[in-house]
Amino acid sequence: MIKLTRISTAYPKAAKNINKKILKKKNLNYNELLKEVFVLGFGESNNITKELSKKNYDCNEIISNIKYLQKTWSKEYLQKKSNKSIILEQIFFYKPNVIYFGNYSLLTKDLLKEIRKLNHVKLIIVFHCSPITSEIEKKLKLADLVITCTDGYKEEIEKKIKKKTFLIHHAFNTSSKKYIKTKKRSIDVTFVGSLYMKSGLHINRINLIYILLKKFSNTYIGVDFPLKNFYYIFTFLFSPNSHYKLFGKLKLIYKIFYILINCRKAVYGNDMLELLNKSKLLINSHIEDTRYAGNMRLFEGTGMGCLVLTDNKIGLDKLFKINKQIVVYKNLVDLTNKIVFYLKNKKKLLLVAKNGYKKTHSKHNYKNRVKILDKLIKKNIKSYEKNLF
Questions:
Q1: Distance, C-alpha 49 to centroid of its chain
Q2: Do the two domains 2-171+365-388 and 174-362 of this chain adopt the same fold?
Q3: For residues 86 and 91, what is the distance between their CA atoms, to the nearest angstrom?
Q4: For residue range 33-85, what is the model confidence (pLDDT) as tens digits?
Q5: CATH architecture for the domain at 174-362
């Protein structure tokens, strides 16, 4: 039996909300609290380890940024005070053969140095699927195995770290089908996502959200806008290197403040699934730096029975049949026209949504994704054991 420990983080605002909810359940022990967290359905939750457990893995999950959860673990399992990090103490305790880092930032040189001393650890995996900085590059090099979620990031990571990288697309938790409404959906258009201004990753998204708020009334436009953005806006406004002229900058700033005044809060986990369950159309937008399709919202939207309208990226046609299971837009005018078209043509909307739903539930589920991961783990453990002798 392979023992695997997955170490991850919840999205910062989701982690804060989760922490508040479990603080109210101080009568529960660590394992009971962990189950409560998984019930909330944030991000990948325990979907990967749940499927690996069915393949005879002994799995443990550590969610490093949910403070009360980690504090409870320390109280229950640490026999004495330690100057070592809690993550390292948890690795000592669970004695995994495989450590799967769901967030690159958790893998540090100091932590790796300690892990490499442990005879029971045979494989260190890191998953990463976002823009790659020099800092991230250094972190990825520390792992034995790197996994990413699009062909584009796979190519980029392999080029930068000179190490074989493996593609496993995001997936949808098909047990979420309990939410699915087949008939009445009360919200016409939904968008849920972040606006992150550093390096201009979401400049196009500003225009998209602004148009949705201006043109359509029966919507839920939920935006996460980190406070750091005000610093990035300020530097952008006064940067002489920007290709935007002063009028263009001011126009963009106006749109940002219009969005902040008129948007709603971003929602996470089951709250987001419940929102998608009420929505007819879900608008998806990849970040500007990627030319390849594969963000989480594609699978969450189709998996919850929405018609997903997305920007057209390379590889999207390998995941879904265009205009049959998912619909693409070329630009904001095209997006607006297609929203109007599908809201008027309910039968076509329902047909595409139904087809997308079927594709995600049959193909883009964790059972299928974990088959790939299982093979990778077993193959790499065999290589490790062979090199010992």
A1: 16
A2: yes
A3: 9
A4: 999 999 998 889 999 999 999 999 999 999 999 999 999 999 999 877 777 89
A5: 3-Layer(aba) Sandwich (3.40)
Task: Give just the sign of the alpha carbon dihedral 16, 134, 313, 287.
Answer: positive
Global pTM value: 0.92
Place of tokens 């139904």: 354
- Going from N- to C-terminal start, the domains of the chain cover 2-171+365-388, 174-362
Q: Is residue 196 very low, low, confident or very high in pLDDT (cuts 50, 70, 90)?
A: confident
Q: Mean pLDDT across the stretch 208-223?
A: 96
Q: For the chain, what's the residue count?
A: 389
Q: Calculate the dihedral angle through the C-alpha atoms of 353, 356, 358, 363, rounding to the nearest 10 degrees.
A: -160
* Residue 302 CB contacts under 8 Å (≥ 6 apart), including other chains: 172, 308, 320, 325, 326, 353, 356, 357, 359, 360, 364
Q: In whole angstroms, what is the distance from residue 389 CA to residue 384 CA? A: 9
Residue type, 45: S
* CATH (residue range 2-171+365-388): 3.40.50
Helices (H), the chain: 12-23, 30-39, 47-53, 67-77, 86-94, 109-115, 134-141, 151-161, 203-215, 229-238, 246-262, 269-277, 296-303, 316-319, 332-344, 346-362, 366-388
Interhelix angle 346-362/332-344, rounded to 10 degrees, is 100
